[in-house]
Amino acid sequence: MMGLASYLLISLILFVAGLVVMIARKNIVAILLGIELILNASALNFVAYSRYVTNNLDGHIFSLFIIVVAAAEAAVGLAIVIRFFQIKETVHVDEATQLRN
Amino acid sequence: MNQTVVSYLSQYEFYDIILEAFGNNEGLLAFVIYSLFAVIIVALCATIGGLGTYAERKISADIQQRLGPNRVGPYGILQFLADGVKMMTKEDVMPFTADKMLFYLAPCLALVGVFATLAVLPWSSGFIMADMNVGIFYLIAISSLVGVSVFLGGYASNSKWSMLGGMRGASQIISYEIPVTISILAIVLLAGGMSFGAIVGHQKGLPTNWFIFHNPFAFVAFFVYFIGALAETNRAPFDLPEAESELVSGYHTEYTGMRFGFFALAEYIEVFVVCGVAAALFLGGSNLPFDISFDILPIQLVEVVIFMTKTLLLYYVVIWIRWTFPRLRVDQLMSICWKYLTPIAIVNLCGCAIWLVVFNGRSFAQIVFGGHH
Amino acid sequence: MFAQLLFAMSALLTVGGAIAVVVTKNIMHSCIFLLACLIGVAGLYATLGADFVAVTQIMVYVGGIVILMLFAVMLTGGKDFVSRAQNLLGLAPSMGNKWTFSIAILVSIVFLLTNISLIGNIVRSHAPKTFGNDYPSTVSQIGHLLVKDHVLAFELSSVLLLGALVGAAIIARPRKQ
User: Which pLDDT score, from 0 to 100, does residue B1 have?
Assistant: First the structure.
């Protein structure tokens, strides 16, 4: 049961779920949720390959950096969402039509 | 590497006898031992949480020159059982506009987050369910589930008091996590590892070997940790999320019966856990003050008693602080965290690192009195 | 046995959480299902012997990102935009008409088959190694790797985090009109 294939399959499901969330939702926060799912899918792949294929810890390092980048991205992204809400009073992604305020 | 209670017990002869009774099925025996320990620890901590409410009321009565609960049982000691029965038999009310799923989920998350930390708490050198190499890191990480539960409890109740309490609670918990984690990091630096076994093992012997007396920076780090831990567990003077004079009861205003009981129990057990962590990281944990060359089970029990004594003394201090200091304002709370505790903690971390390099890892007592490294 | 049990439970939590994030209409519930999914991923890391990564995952996501997301949802009103015009999948109809859907289904089938064959190739080309119940700790090795081989990325990530901290504070700061 525990093999490389099952981890890759789970990561595939995570990736597709994230993609569907990003495409189908119109709420900016939901789009950020989708990005988190996709980043997790890739990090899971790195760790799975690192155990079953390369046998060193570079995959772990890579997924640690993915987590760091995800944290930074979430912080800045949510700050932008809150600022956007202050200006437009909505978080509908189609309302984001201009760069300057 | 990763020592567990099973690997500790397997060095004794009776383990082999029991193993044969289990038909040499090591996995099954390990499962049974883990389950047994989990049940014992959870039952013990639930009792400690219950007795915590009794101690709180009795000590506060003592401080305010009252009698406190004295009707149920001798000195009122069975009061917590009566409270528990009362809570379980109460009607479970849910606000009409509440978010049903999150309302049910929040108290369970609080209890899960707290009970999960008990897996790495070092009761003695052998009795520690899993002495993971990431022990203290795991404890900090998993206990942040409590923050999520506070927030969810506030949001799901759909009431203004709860909402304000939940937002205050979540922002307070994630803010104070920073000074707490950085002061723990200073101790990780001194011990050279994140496992509780390594940290406690470094502090063997007299109190001069405890990490709190290792150097001046670690001494300050203890107080930073303790203040931050008080805030993280929403204890007075940092109990803004449940400030009864402003927000009726904060994030658990709308909870009744055992769901409220879950929040209360989680809070009291969390106080016990952070006191236990303080005892293990700074105050020598479960070490005996002298070296013993042999290791038998009664000595483990003595170590458990030592650990419990230190932890419960800190628990007393927590209650003492609650009934002594007035509550802070929200802006004072945030300025204490970001303007004072966090810079102090960072300076402590750098100071500990420099101390380790300059004095080659020797503690203050070893420098003054001389001594082996 | 423990590892397989943990794997099964984590996989269930991950997949169930991910699917629930997709199908839930309520954005607050989506965040909580995302939390379940991320804890499941941490469990999967644990079954892969990556203890440090697993705990970092819990630390960063549970303690930070999910609470931030919940805050953002609450500060922005907590509404999700469910359009009235529903298509057969119950998804928002922004993706077009039946032609785009049929093309999308075709593309997904091709995508799925490609992925299955790719995964099959990868799995077949690497003979299955047998791992016992030994999970050596990765903490000290990761520490050495971070300050030796990957020290540049490590330092750069600190700059990135500082930039994100300051940037987020400046962007979200309330401004006087």
Answer: 45
Class of the CATH domain delimited by C1-77: mainly alpha
pLDDT digits (tens, 9 = 90+) for B282-317: 888 788 777 776 677 778 888 888 888 889 899 999
pTM above 0.95, yes or no: no
Chain C neighbors of A86, CB-CB under 8 A: 174
Mind listing the pLDDT tens digit for each residue in B130-165?
A: 888 888 888 988 888 888 888 888 888 888 888 888
DSSP B116-136: HHGGG--SSSS--SEE-TTHH
Write down the ipTM of this complex.
0.88
Spell out the alpha helix ranges (H) of chain B: 5-9, 13-21, 26-63, 79-89, 100-117, 135-142, 145-156, 160-191, 196-201, 216-232, 257-281, 297-322, 330-335, 342-358, 364-369
What is the Cα B181 distance to its own chain's centre? 14
Range of the domain at A36: 4-95
How many angstroms separate the Cα of B325 from the Cα of each of B156, B220, B311? 31, 21, 21
- Measured CB to CB, residues of chain C less than 8 Å from chain B are 1-2, 26, 28-29, 32, 35, 51-52, 55-56, 58-59, 62-64, 66-67, 70-71, 74, 135-137, 139
- Boundaries of every domain in chain B: 94-369
Out of C47, C57, C120, closest to residue A2 by CB: C47
In chain C, domain spans: 1-77, 96-125
Q: Which two tokens stand for residue B350?
A: 């750098």
Confidence band (pLDDT; 50, 70, 90) for C84? very low
C85: left (phi over 0), alpha (psi -120 to 50) or beta: beta
| A-C contacts at Cβ under 8 angstroms | 205
Does C73 sit within 8 Å of A29, measured CB to CB? Answer: yes
Backbone angles phi, psi at B130, to 5 degrees: -145, 110
Domain containing residue A16: CATH number: 1.10.287.3510
A100 within a domain of the structure (yes/no): no
Q: Name which of B141, B170, B177 is nearest C71 (Cβ-Cβ).
A: B170
Task: List C-alpha distances in Å: B193 to A101, B88, B127, C137.
Answer: 50, 43, 19, 12
DSSP code of C127? P
pLDDT of residue B201 exceeding 60, the answer is yes
Beta carbons of C55 and B141 less than 8 Å apart: yes
- Determine contact, residues B314/B275, Cβ cutoff 8 Å: yes
**Is the Cβ pair A79, C171 closer than 8 Å?**
yes
**Across the interface, do C59 and B141 touch by the CB < 8 Å criterion?**
yes
Pick A40's closest partner by Cβ from C41, C126, C168.
Answer: C41
Q: Report CB contact under 8 Å: C65, A74.
A: yes
Note whether residue A19 is domain-resident: yes
Helix axes B257-281, B145-156, angle to 10 degrees: 160
Lowest pLDDT segment from B220-229, C116-125, C136-145? C116-125
Instruction: Give mean pLDDT, residues A73-100.
Output: 81
> In chain C, what residues touch A3 (CB-CB under 8 Å)?
123, 128
H/E stretch holding B3 reads strand B3-4
Number of domains in chain A: 1
Q: What is the pLDDT of residue B89?
A: 86
